[in-house]
Design goal:
By secondary structure, the chain is α+β, with helices and mostly antiparallel strands. The chain contains 10 helices and 4 strands, in the order E-H-E-E-E-H-H-H-H-H-H-H-H-H.
Length: 242
């Protein structure tokens, strides 16, 4: 059986890590049996989550995990879609993972209130004399990555305006369809759902969350995907929880 390593439930989400959520939803899409196990990034071959163990083989990075699943189990996550739709899906995924995701990171890790409420607790089990230093170092590294991404170079508010352009593009792509590309989910739906749910969770307050809440079709999309892939999870949209 496949073992999926992620951070586990938290922050009002069935899985804290958006990328682990992406992989978990894709495992569900493929109908593959798996089990979950908590892990921290240093345990991964690439120093990041998620990673999976499949018949003794370790595969890290959600995109490479997807490729492994397609190759080994013969499952096409974009089945039914033509080359143009597949290209559009890939472009959407790159936009989400290399732009919008970093806006989520900024809201969770760079905002001091949200950091104290959420990510800082990753280090609660560290020795007393090292805990604060580990928290400070981790927040600094994430803030540095936020800067490198480009969003962190802008004044507060300007970074959100740029992120919302990606959100609006997703809303336009979705339109009134049930899924991003049409009437059936594709691999990129797992990515979009994971990041949007991470933004919309009522656990964190942020300008980004409030802006995403104004896109009704995206809020409904997250609700729909959550009900489909995590029916056992007690999810409330940010709008409902407000």
């Amino acid at each position: 059986m496949i073992t999926l390593f992620g951070l586990g439930t938290g922050f009002g989400l069935p899985e804290i890590s958006p990328f682990a959520t992406k992989t978990e939803v894709q495992l569900k899409m493929a109908g593959l049996a798996y089990r979950k196990q908590r892990a921290m990034p240093p345990a991964s071959p690439k120093g990041q989550l998620p990673f999976i163990e499949d018949d003794g083989e370790l595969i890290a990075d959600s995109t490479f995990i997807r490729a492994h699943l397609e190759r080994k189990y013969g499952f096409d996550f974009d089945d039914g879609y033509d080359l143009e739709a597949r290209a559009q899906a890939w472009a959407c995924e790159r936009m989400i993972e290399h732009h919008l995701y970093f806006a989520l990171v900024g809201a969770r890790w760079v905002d001091p209130v949200n950091f104290a409420k959420g990510p800082s607790h990753f280090f609660d089990g560290a020795p007393d004399d090292k805990r604060e230093r580990l928290r400070e170092d981790a927040q600094f590294r994430v803030a540095e990555n936020y800067l490198i991404s480009g969003l962190g170079r802008h004044a507060p508010g300007d970074d959100i305006e740029l992120a919302v352009r990606s959100v609006r593009a997703l809303a336009v792509q979705l339109g009134d369809k049930p899924y991003l590309m049409g009437d059936k989910p594709c691999g990129t739906d797992a990515t979009a759902f994971a990041v949007l749910a991470g933004i919309l969770t009522p656990f964190f307050e942020s300008d980004l969350r409030r802006r995403v809440e104004t896109f009704g079709n995206l809020v409904a999309y997250v609700d729909r995907m959550m009900a489909q892939y995590y029916p056992e999870f007690a999810w409330s949209t940010a709008a409902e929880a407000a």
